[in-house]
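Lab notebook, bench 4. Still working through the backlog of constructs that have no structural model yet. Next entry is a single chain of 345 residues. Request: give me the structure tokens for it.
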Amino acid sequence: MPSVAIVFTGGTISMRHDPVAGGIVPVLSGRDLLETVPGLDSIATLVPIDHGLTPASHFTFGGLFELWEVVRGALADDDVVGAVIVQGTDTIEETAFFFDLLHAGPKSVVVTGAMRAASDLDYEGPANLRDAVRVAASPALRGAGVVVVLAGTIEPADDVIKTHTSAFDTFKSLNRGSLGWVEGDEVQLVRPRGPRRHVAATRAAERVRLVVATVAADGMEIEALRAAGADGFVVAATGAGNTSPLLLAAAERAMADGLPVVLTTRSPAGAASAAYAFPGGGATWVRAGAMLSGYLGGPKARVALALGLGAGLDHAGLASLLADPAGPADVTDPGGPADATEPRS
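Model written out:
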């Protein structure tokens, strides 16, 4: 039987309502969580590792590197075929991509959590844990890098985003679609993962700033952050990569100081491009030296830029890391079983 390491870090899946605190707080250890999922040992031999009770909104780059070292150490065991990381869902789209950028081996890494606390009647944590272990143990996911598994779907780390604050099926891959789903005892894949980004980093630039373009944006946010010592900027532009000329002018001054600037879109799907050539249009950003990030949205592009700078990449290396390795894509919906995203207990 395959062995799967499962690293517990906290999150909603570990929480119960505390009447004194007036809300849910993390209390369940890894052992407590495993006791909610009878029969897991029939899927894989588990190697449980407790790594604290940290809300996902509290993660830092330093903390993520420490967590990745724990996972990497577990994967170094020849008997372990994959790993599961259990965490809060608030930042899964960033943390899973962080791990995906660092993960160079063929073994599967699955990130999961829950949208409901253990004190809720519709708690789906046990079902997500069971699915995550099944995916991590499956040879079908070998070489697929890091994936996110909740509500029965299997999502690639570089595309998945959280689309709703509380829905069970919140995690979706809006550009290329899900890799597949878990139905009962079966792991069903509808497409391969495809090429992935990778960077050999042991640190991240801590002060990469994400700036979102809005109506009447004047560039003062970039000016203030540049003066405060920013390491670089990711600008989430409107539409296909367009902003006001004032925002571009501020970014140009940052680039003149040697700071890297990445252009993406604030839209949940699609990519920024050089299609528009009016002042502040995507073409003028690219001509000014901004790098495009393929289908990476703002939070993921920030993770890539921070790790790329931490690895010491030059402008060409950063541009290569940010570019979409699979090329353009159409938005797809490969579908799945009718009940794949229904709440489960």
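Notes after review: Residues 331-345 have pLDDT under 50 and may be disordered. The chain is about 25% helix and 20% strand. Flag for follow-up if needed.
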